[in-house]
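Methods: example folding runs. The two proteins below were folded one after another, and each record is reproduced exactly as written to the output file, sequence line first and structure-token line second.
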Amino acid sequence: MQAGIVECGWGPVIAGTRITIYLVLHYLENGRSPQEIADLYDLALEQVQAAIQYIEEHKDHVMGVHKEIEAEIARGNPPEVEAKLAVARANARKKMKALLEERRRTNIHESNGERDSPRC
């Protein structure tokens, strides 16, 4: 595994992954140890340490961007996105309800010894 940091379109990431240094920073700020972060994302400890070193070497810039990211998260989604999410959630609930109802019907048939198709 590589233990470097590379710049990509969405910020500096641990080489060979899509894990940003900002994600590592988030976990560090919330009391996670480097080993816990490595275990959580199946990384070598050296990879997490490379991210920590990058954060320390570029602290002013990293903290500025991190603050912007946190502010954007706090603002939440714009109303048009929330509306689309509401529709998607409603559709997902309808689909799940239909699947559960079908499952319930299938279980009733099987408990009565009836089956629509043979089991292998």
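Second run, written to the same file directly after the first:
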Amino acid sequence: MGKELAADMRATGLAVADGSKSLLALAIVVGVAVLREGSEVALFLYGIVTTDGGSSESLAFGGAVGLALGAAVCLLTYQGLLRIPPRPLFKITTVLISLLAAGMAAQAASFLERANWLTALDSILWDTGWLIPDHSLLGRTLHTLMGYTDQPTVMQLVVYLSVLGITFLLMRLTGSRSVVVHAA
């Protein structure tokens, strides 16, 4: 979906540059992309409210802090993006997104285990709660970024490693081909 959206944006941008499409077309494509990302944020916040039971004040405060941090990151990214070579940048972001996806899949396995829908390989592998507890700031940060849990089950590890393996295998198989975008 992301590749298709980027290809659509690129094609629309080229068409606007050629003069075959108006700036309104580019604005609509960008607006749809922003709307899609906004809906993901709304779903994420809804999930927090329903599972964590957080108050509206804490949600508003967290949203404001997140917005401020996001603006700061955007400013820093804008200022430094031209200095970073694109190839290493995209490799690093690909790895980070892959870790995030694997963590989300492992968390889904954890939810299925708690609901007794997935009972195979549900024994706990290790307990690192003495070092980095789940409820600590570092534990929550690692959980958000890469799916850390201080007491993972065998199934969570299998799911995590499987998602990473499949992701990197598919990237390797499809990474050698270059994508050519033609203006419409």
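Comment on the second run: Confidence is low (pLDDT under 50) at residues 178-184.
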